[in-house]
Every structure is written in structure tokens, then in C-alpha cells.
Amino acid sequence: MSTNNNHLNHSLILIVLLLIAFATKSEQSKQIPALYVFGDSLVDSGNNHYLPGEYSQNFFPYGIDFGTPTGRCTNGKTVADFLAIYLGLPFAPAYLGLSRSKRNRIVTTGINYASAGSGILPDTSNNKRISDPIYYLFLN
């Protein structure tokens, strides 16, 4: 029962956030300069492709909609990609896929720090925590 309530709560939060985004899109889309993505496999645009371990999606059918494997945990666009399209922004590239000089230039247009298998709690996964991308951000 608790699991069902958690799923319901998460679904309601997502619906409310999407409704707010849709309601304010016309006024704010011109004011949103970039998309910074933090999360797990639902929004990972390929960071795990550059990490050692078991969470790699660098083979078909992953990325088949792009014509090549992208490191995403999907065959095409992620939720963050659809949000970028909706807001009229470019896709936020995977942070670990960018050179240091490119990271410094592209930081104003958005970056994707998400990593499949990540979680907020240290014991969520042996792979990555959501705090790790924040650490990467300050490496520059």
C-alpha cells in the first residue's frame, strides 16, 4: 500500500509541475535561457556512456531513433529532451561527453548531469548519486 501511495504522490507532483510548465510556457519561454538536468536514467542523455561499470547503453537498440547509440536509456528522446523542445531550447548535452573548453562555453545554454542508476541517498546505488554531478560542476 505504501508503494502505491508513493507512486501516486510522485505522479501527482509530476502532473502539477507539468501543468505549471504548460500554463506559463507562453510568458516564460523567452525568459528561460538554458536547461540544466539532474536525475537518473529517465533523463540521462549519455553520461553513463563515459563511466565504467554495468550501466552502459552504447549499443543498439539504444538511440536507434538518432541513428546511433547515444548512451541514453531509451531508443530516442528523454523527458528532458521533450521539455527542451517544448521550451524551444536545444537538447542539454551530457556533461561527461564534453571537453573542458566546450563545458565552459556551453554552460550558458544548458548541460545534462543526469546519470542512470543515480539516487539521492548514498545507499541507493553503487553507481552514482545525484550529488556527484554537482561535484562535477565545481571541477571546472
From TrEMBL:
Signal peptide: 1-28
GO molecular function, one term: hydrolase activity, acting on ester bonds
Location (main, coarse): secreted
Pfam families membership: Lipase_GDSL (PF00657)
UniProt cross-references to InterPro entries, sorted A to Z: GDSL, GDSL_esterase/lipase, SGNH_hydro_sf
UniProt-listed GO biological process terms: lipid catabolic process
Source species, domain of life: Eukaryota
KW Transferase (keyword) present: no
The keyword Membrane belongs to this UniProt entry's keyword annotation: yes
Entry keywords, A to Z: Hydrolase, Lipid degradation, Lipid metabolism, Membrane, Secreted, Signal, Transmembrane, Transmembrane helix
Record's subcellular location: Secreted
TM regions (residue ranges): 79-98
This protein's GO CC annotations: extracellular region
PANTHER family reported in the protein's UniProt record: GDSL-LIKE LIPASE/ACYLHYDROLASE-RELATED (PTHR45650), GDSL-LIKE LIPASE_ACYLHYDROLASE (PTHR45650:SF5)
UniProt record similarity statement: Belongs to the 'GDSL' lipolytic enzyme family.
Protein name from the UniProt record: GDSL esterase/lipase
